[in-house]
Amino acid sequence: MRLIPTEIFVVLVLPVAVAGCSTLPESGPAHRNVEADASAKLNGPSPVFNYALVDLNKNVLPFVVDPGPGSLYRTFGTGHGPAPELRVGIGDTVQVTLFEAQAGGLFIPTDAGSRPGNFVTLPNQVVDSRGFITVPYAGQIRALHKTTPEIQQDIVGKLKDRAIEPQAVVSIVQQTSFDVSVVGEVNKPSKFAINPSGDTVLDAISVAGGIKNQGYDSYVTLQRHGLKGTVYFPNLVTDPKENIYVQPADALYVSFYQRSFLAFGATGASGQFKFQQDVLSLNDAVGKAGGLLDSRSDPGQVFVYRSENREALEKMGIDLSHFSADQSAIPTIYRVNFRDPSGFFASRKFPMRDGDVLYVDNADLVEIGKFLSIITTVTTPANSGMATTLQIRNWPAVTTFVP
Fold first, then answer.
1. Fewer Cβ close by (within 10 Å): the C or N end of the chain?
2. What CATH number should be reported for the domain holding residue 308?
3. 0.90 exceeded by pTM
4. What burial letters (b/e) apply to 9-23, b meaning 16+ CB within 10 Å?
């Protein structure tokens, strides 16, 4: 029998093998069937998204920062400045004390007897639904949205022609319109009145017993007059500008959320991985994913996929002319070369972000190995069959003895 060369056998067998693939077990419909049975198609050679490819180096690193989910400072436009001036609101209880320069006036009789001083304190009053309080001989005084000095000035203005050099002192006995609510993942959800000297966001969280979970898994959302801003809790601690003063009727919500990234390709493990720390570098992420596989990975082709802020890319000097001018988030792939020793130092300064995708490419030899493996899989059974046939034909005759 004449042996068939391997090259000829592959040419003859591969079409049969490919045709027979449809009979092999599958977990779902084959892509060929999906494409063939479609009633309409929309495809083409162009990529789904335009993207920017950025090689990680010392000129890029200064602009690769994690802005976090948002900013209280940018949202509300107030930083760590003077405490907000508190104004009287509906439902607040105030106390009014009136003074006159001498006895015999409107409030202090001539025969004052054993009075301790030339003043009189009025009963506490609750600011009514229209925002007014009442002062004898002065009538109704508007208190809503006014500071205590402004209310004092209004009272004196109405009494100056009737009392002897009148003076007024207004103080807030009970604050209900100054309340701030703190709810969510805190130890003691509560509602409390703002201190006249001012309370910051961290002060408010402290009054509520502090956060329940780790700081790196916590976010703080502030709602104020229809606006909402969210900040990553560690940013609130490390950046003084974010720790703004709270204002009356503010609502703070502390939420729990674990940041994560995805890892695929030639890593020790694939899947979703939690940050579980304040700042996760690219080096840390590769380590969490089991490192690079020696037998498969190309250390020079390690990629991070994310949407990057347009302004940051422009500062890096990236040409963004292929992207729409109003596109603020640019699909971006960062590449780092771990064959270069400096690549490890650059990766230490590259912060991962929530939702990043880490991908490690296969080495070129791995793809060649896959091809050779396919060839071996196809040719080995055929060669084995030929060898078996030859062996059978060359066996000596066997004599059978029947007892």
1. C
2. 3.10.560.10
3. no
4. bbeeeeeeeeeeeee
